[in-house]
Amino acid sequence: MKITRSTTLAALAALGLTLGTAACSSGTAAENDTAAAGTGGETVKMCVLVSDATSSEALGFKDYYTQYIQQNFDVEFVYSEELADADAEKRAMESFIANNCRAIISFASADRPAQIEMAESAGIYYSVATGTLTDEQYEMFKDYQYYVGAIGPSLDVELQAGYDMAKHFVDEGDTRFAIYGAGIPYYIDMHIYRTAGMLAALAEDPSTTYGGAKEFGDILGVIMRDGTIKVDQFASDVYELTGYQEVWDFDDSAWQANLAAVVSSKPDVILAAGTGFAVFGAAVSGTDIAIGDIDAYTDENAKAMEAGSLSYLAGKFTSSTGPIFAATLSAVQGHPIRGEGDTALALEQGYWVATSIDQFNEFLAADTIESPVYDQAALEPFIGTDVSYDDFAAFVSKYSFDELAG
Amino acid sequence: MRRVTGALAIPVTVFVVLTALCSINGASLFGTDDSLLLLTRGVATTMLTAMALAINLNSGRFDFSLGAMATLSSVIGATVAIQTGSGIVVMGGITVAVGVALGAFSGLVYVLLGISPMVCSLGITLLYEGVSFAITGGANVSFLLDGGLTSFSKSPAAMAAVIAVGLLVVVLLFDQSRFGYDYRALITGQGPAVAAGIREKRNAVAAYAISGGLMGAVGLILASQMGYIEAGKLNFGSIGIMFTAFLPMFVGGFIGRYSNDKLGYLLGALCTTLLGLAFAALHLTSTVQSITNALLLVGFLLFLSNEDKLARLWRRVARRDRHTTGHLPPASPDVPAQPIVRTGATAS
User: Fold this and answer.
1) Is the pTM of this model over 0.80?
2) What are the boundaries of the signal sequence (chain A) (predicted)?
């Protein structure tokens, strides 16, 4: 057969279409023949905004929704691409609205107020997973009809997680610290609060200050003002802040130089506000530098802890996003769970903390995609029923390992 | 002497200025244990990317798919190495070979479709990003704890070897081979070159393939250095890799007027890497770094676009000085003193 230009074009088009379909279908029900095997009602299309599409934590959350939840409830998940900024979030929201999503669950936090406003205008239920709004934002949006609410670590919990992690290493006798601030330059609240918590723990020493501040609120103010951590703002007779790194561009030579400078400064510990092992893992292997991280219970982090690179993990468990799903689906089905005065949910979840591989493996085994702690039986009582806010709040508040799986 | 001065003026100035800035601030440009590694690794990745970018840009073909080539080739190389338990040699061989194949495919699509190279490369970028995503399911390809695969980018000797081999291969291909002669003939006069029997489509595909091979090497270094590959980038998320090479490519193109353009890219990459080391030594925030880089790029492009005017202005000032000091004006019309052939990698 003579290969003409038309034949080539047709073959390329077919190849592109096939690969494009394969790439885009990963988060839909299309790959799941047994989807919508739940109560037999209408399949609800839920769209998910993600700012991180590749980390093991993000993939764990996604697997729970697309593999477990989708198989056990009448729901279809459509995921956004990785959203780098507020503008990308807005475009994804517009796409979801145009595609008849009945609800949106957001893991993206560059501009949550804009997301909530867009969802409210479009009459689409909207909820925040693995995070919460600030008090000011909650006051602004709590009465919105379509704002379901938020379930996740509050900013106070984030502060405490950072504080507890730094305190753990201080109690172990470490004095030389480096900090990985992750999304601080993008003003990601949870990373800022965690980092402020770390510095507040170090500032409990009388000689230690950051930017002249000793109290958490003042330290937070300095970070918010600068949009970064400045090593030369740290003063202490006891501790040393040997280096600081944050996210901007992994392929950038300056970023690489800064990463190497942090490792070369030979801290005892790198305190990471998130994804610490993923960023520093290769760089610290073969050194005595430990990593303390706030991330998730994943196989990758288990290997890191086994290898000794990771020595402290405050982690989310994979099915921790179950309750916000239940509340969102219930709202779509006409049974919203609302607080006193018909207000949106604002419920806290915390972290499971592991400091040894045995503890880590115990946590990891307790919550799997096949057998999550928030399984169908646990969630079903709160979906499609007129459950009270207090009952649901009590359910969510029991999130510790001992309460859920111990 | 003029050529040596012209070639070294920018790198030496950059080095002196940055060293002085660091000294003033009590820092050292090479203050860490890994300084040599950082220097060689930065120069290797930046030089290879700048050359890959310039190869097609010199021919008027803008290629957005370089980052996607680096990502996809390293995804395939790393996946094979992890699944077969083989080492960095296998990963490197596969990554570079796949890079060549991806580049050749990109070139074939361009010459077969005959559409604008910019549009074509945007489509190829989406295709390669989609394939990377499909292979990994959107997850990172991670080998953080595999010392064998991550050791390559931790060796200054390996990085120096990459620089030497990369430079040698490109010089041999573009300066010492029939392909290179044809390539330059097509750049300087496409019509006469084709009329003379040069097969421009074959040359274009080969240029794309070489560019892809260079990006395969870049992908290998980046993957080995981080211990993972972000394969979930869609919708042009991979383009950033290419943009890191713009400043060194323009600087290299300028330096190349006084020597060889390949040596220019090496020195341009050296300047950029030194700048990165200085940013880290001075603890500049990411915001300040981004603004500084942008200002340097815009400033250099402004210079390149207006250098004729600047040269005329300089000669006018010099003539006025000579008049005032009693010298006679030149007897001949002004002629640019530099017998320069510009490469395509300039602002023009």
Assistant:
1) no
2) 1-29
